[in-house]
Every structure is written in structure tokens, then in C-alpha cells.
Amino acid sequence: MAFARIDLPGSLGAIAFLAFLASFAAADEPTLESRLMPLIQAHKGKVSVAIKNLKTGETFLYHEDVPMPTASLIKLPIMVETYRQAEEKKVDLGEMITLKQSDKVPGSGILTDHFSAGAKFPLLDAIHLMIVYSDNTATNLVLDKIGIGSTAETMEKLGYPHTKAHSKVFRRDTSVFPERSKQFGLGSTTASEMIRLCESLQKGELISKEASEAMLKHLRACDDKDKFPRFLPPGTKVAFKTGSVDASKTAAGLIECGQGPVAVCVMTDENEDKRWVTDNAGNRLCAEVARVVFEHFKNDKADAPAPK
Questions:
Q1: What is the full DSSP assignment across 109-145?
Q2: Could you tell me the domains of the chain?
Q3: CA distance to 69, 102, 180, 241, 291, per residue, from 176 (Å)
Q4: What does the alpha-carbon distance between residue 302 and residue 209 come to, in Å, rounded to a whole number?
């Protein structure tokens, strides 16, 4: 590539040349779209992605308004509704719950296999188990307290009309949206609604500042390492929730990048790869998107402090 010669005196010439190089480098920098689209197009299944840098406003959207199955990702909105009811004194987070044998359902979590019937713990702990370990039994105990249909009602009022919990986990007979249950399973939402929900959470606007921070604390402890955290540097702060069923893998939350927090949602459905392994294609897509986001929104080298 040929460069034209520019003759400018002394330091002025040096500054102009450095500015030219910086602009050339910026133009050569890959965009978020150019990084993400090959990953999305290579995935064998339906994909919906929404990303927003909450500091700069930069976004990436792909099929962001298409309703998709949530799998256990719906437990995030269920948590929001529980904290809303606690704020309005409809439920008490300190109320003790007694686990019955009939409450136990299969799948993710620890209550079913590791707790005996008769165990007692506060509603707050059931919420924590629901988010951190995606505990299905704990989720049903929470839903017993707040009502199955209340999450959808509140999400609609808050401006998230596609975000709905349909039934208790592994209890399709309890569905309050039978047709949506047939189409989407446990719950449904869109990628755009999830990143808006996460943005409100980050800003402390969801229920209250105190409730938002309490919910973020639960999400920061999520133990699913196969999705967003997988390829991120150790110690990266991620507040998130995920979902997994045979044909769908989902994840949504906040990734702390060099430029600040970024809201990210990745949803997949009708996946060809239905293996229950770490390197499942749906898991890997979530992980690869998180890595691209973290790298794209790192601090600019020009903004980095000069070495001493």
C-alpha cells in the first residue's frame, strides 16, 4: 500500500502522522457485526442475539424480537417478580419453606438429590438456589409463593410482553399458557427484552436500587461455566443466568468489559447438536459471543495509561 508524503514542520508533522496511523488502524479494526455473524451463521439451529454496551450505547441485534424458548433463563424474570412482591409486602423473603417429598422434581439443582423431605430454609435461599444452581425444585417452591401467572403479568406491565413463565418445572399440567407451553416449554422471551431487563437491573431501576443489587448478587454467583464465562479471563465479573434443554441453550446477563458493563443475550433453538457436554454447539456459541464482546469492548490502547 502506498502512502503520500506529507511535509510538515517538526512536532506538527509527527502529530499529523500519528493521527493518520490511528485513523487507519481504526478503519481496519473489525466491527462487532463482522466478528459475530460468522459464528451465528455457522450455528446449526435458530439463533437470536442482542448486545448493548451500557456506557457507549453501541449495539448488535440479530433476530432480537423473535420469541424464543427460555429454558431455565426464565428463572431470572421469576426472581424479579419475587423481589417485586417482597417490596410490596406480598411475600416475605425470610419466610421459612418446608420441603416435601412431593415437591421434588428431576433435572438441575441440589434439593432433590441432597436434601431430605422436611428440610426448612427461607424463601431467599430458594431464590438463590434457583439462580445459582438453576434448581428446579427450588423454582417450583418460589412459584408456589408468588403464583405462576404473576411473572408474565408484571413483565407485561414493565414493557416486556413476550417474557412469560408458563408453568412449574416438569409440571406441564400447571401451565397458565398451554399453547405457549407446547411451543416454547417452560418459558418464553426475546433477546431484546432480556438485555433491556439486564440494563434496568444494572442501573438499579428494577424494583429498587437495593433489590437490583440483591438480584445482581445472585446472578454473579451463577455456576454455569460452560456458557458466558468459559473463554473469559479469570476474574471477569459476569452476572448472568442460563438455560439448557435438549434443543435449546440460552444465556443472558451483564459482562464487565474494559469499557464498562455490556448487556448480552444469546438464545438458540432447534439445535442440531443435542449433546449434554461442555462443548455442545449451543453452549459454545454463548461462550464465543461472550469472548467476542469482551475483546471488542476492551479499553482502547490509546486510552491506556502510559508505562512508568
A1: SSHHHHS-TT-EEEHHHHHHHHHHS--HHHHHHHHHH
A2: 32-66+191-298 (3.40.710.10), 68-189 (3.40.710.10)
A3: 16, 21, 9, 23, 38
A4: 34
**Cα(215)–Cα(134) distance, integer angstroms:** 14
**SS3 of 274, please?**
coil
For helices 75-87 and 150-158, angle between their N-to-C axes, nearest 10 degrees: 80
Of 64, 62, 18, nearest in space to 193 by CA: 64
Q: How far apart are CA 170 and CA 172, in angstroms?
A: 6
All three cell numbers of 232: 473469559
Selection from 261, 259, 262, 257 nearest residue 300 by Cα: 259
Q: Which residues touch 115 (CB under 8 Å, ≥6 apart)?
A: 99
pLDDT (tens digit per residue) in 97-153: 999 999 999 999 999 999 999 999 999 999 999 999 999 999 999 999 999 999 999
**Which residues, 6+ apart, have CB-to-CB distance to 168 below 8 Å?**
105, 139, 140, 143, 148, 174
CA–CA separation, 224 and 296 (whole Å): 23
Cβ atoms < 10 Å from Cβ of 69:
26
Cell of 87: 417490596
- Which single residue is written with the C-alpha cell 473469559? 232
Segment 55-77, tens digit of pLDDT: 999 999 999 999 999 999 999 99
Query: Tell me, what DSSP letter sits at residue 177?
Result: S
Task: Indicate the pTM of the whole model.
Answer: 0.89
- Which strands sit side by side in the sheet containing 238-245, from one edge to the other? 59-62, 46-53, 260-269, 248-257, 238-245
Using alpha carbons, list the distances in angstroms from residue 217 to 2, 87, 90, 131, 220.
54, 17, 22, 10, 5
How far apart are the C-alpha atoms of 273 and 209, rounded to whole Å?
Answer: 40
Q: Let me know: does 190 contact 49? Beta carbons within 8 Å.
A: no
Cβ neighbours, 10 Å, residue 295 = 14
